[in-house]
Design a protein that fits this description.
Radius of gyration: 18 Å
Structural class: alpha/beta
CATH class of the largest domain: Alpha Beta
Bound molecules: uracil
Largest sheet: 6 strands, mixed
CATH superfamily of the largest domain: Uracil-DNA glycosylase-like domain
CATH architecture of the largest domain: 3-Layer(aba) Sandwich
Helix content: 40-55%
Order of helices and strands: HHHHEEHHEHEHHEEHHH
Distance between the termini: 54 Å
Strand content: 5-15%
Number of domains: 2
């Protein structure tokens, strides 16, 4: 196997980190996006699904799940993980939520968003009028980012890890074909849009992920850390836009959430 893709990913990671620390002369944002999209870095996903495939979406997802569960493309993550946290939910979902990466509880249980942030995400989903099992939930990275030498805590995925795992997510999206994707937090925004613009600038507006409308909003963990009503309201307004886009009725009660303390 050629060492070129790995070397290219390392260079891209280096240039992205340089941009994040304010050095913008290495490569422009659009050049980085183009580099990330080269077939060497983001290969076309394994063709486990085709539009005319007679298998059901559930069968195709199960097949991809089995492939991902045996993945060792990031040897350090394969060595430290308990499970590959593939994704969960309705293969026919109209909404797909995409987070960052599994934490300790998700790694232990093999299911995304089951910890504190997950409980808040479930509450948001229910307040939107769905059951958790109606939607599909996945992460940019399917393995828990390792934290060598630490017994607790999380770290964000590296650009290399994100690029390596990305084909699994694109394949999941291709199988499910949700009507809307919701990206949760800055890592999801970066993974889905190839952008490092602040989330505050990206949220609240529609983007596109391979032809599917994409809304990015605050990560539930951020909403747990920052209890300001104004931030909850912004995240809720993003979800109202999602409901509207999907043609679902929005009640006066829906519209009023988080506008005053009594509605929080
Ligand atoms: N945060 C995420 O982004 N994903 C999870 O699965 C859990 C917490």
């Amino acid at each position: 196997m050629s060492a070129f893709p790995e070397a290219l990913r390392a260079v891209i990671g280096h240039l992205e980190r340089a941009r994040e620390t304010g050095y913008t002369r290495g490569a422009s944002q659009s050049a980085l996006v183009r580099l990330r999209e080269t077939p060497e870095v983001t290969p076309a996903p394994t063709p486990v699904s085709r539009a005319d495939d007679p298998e059901s979406k559930a069968q195709r997802l199960a097949r991809l799940h089995a492939i991902a569960s045996a993945c060792t493309k990031c040897p350090h993550l394969a060595a430290s993980r308990k499970t590959v946290v593939f994704g969960v939910g309705n293969p026919e979902a109209e909404i797909m939520f995409v987070g960052e990466a599994p934490g300790a509880e998700e790694d232990a249980q093999g299911e995304p968003f089951v910890g504190r942030a997950g409980q808040l995400l479930t509450k948001i989903i229910q307040t939107m009028g769905y059951r958790r099992e109606d939607v599909y939930i996945a992460n940019i990275l399917k393995c828990r980012p390792d934290t060598p030498g630490q017994t607790a805590g999380n770290r964000p995925p590296t650009p290399e890890e994100m690029g390596t795992c990305f084909p699994y997510l694109t394949e999941q999206v291709g199988i499910i074909q949700p009507r809307v994707i919701v990206g949760l937090g800055a890592t999801a925004a970066k993974g889905l849009l190839g952008q490092t613009r602040p989330l505050g600038e990206l949220r609240g507006a529609w983007h596109d992920f391979r032809g599917i409308p994409l809304m990015v909003t605050y990560h539930p963990a951020y909403l747990l850390r920052n209890q300001a009503l104004s931030e909850k309201r912004k995240a809720w307004e993003d979800m109202l836009q999602v409901k509207e886009r999907l043609g679902h009725a929005i009640s006066e009660r829906d519209r009023g959430y988080f506008l005053s303390k009594s509605s929080a």
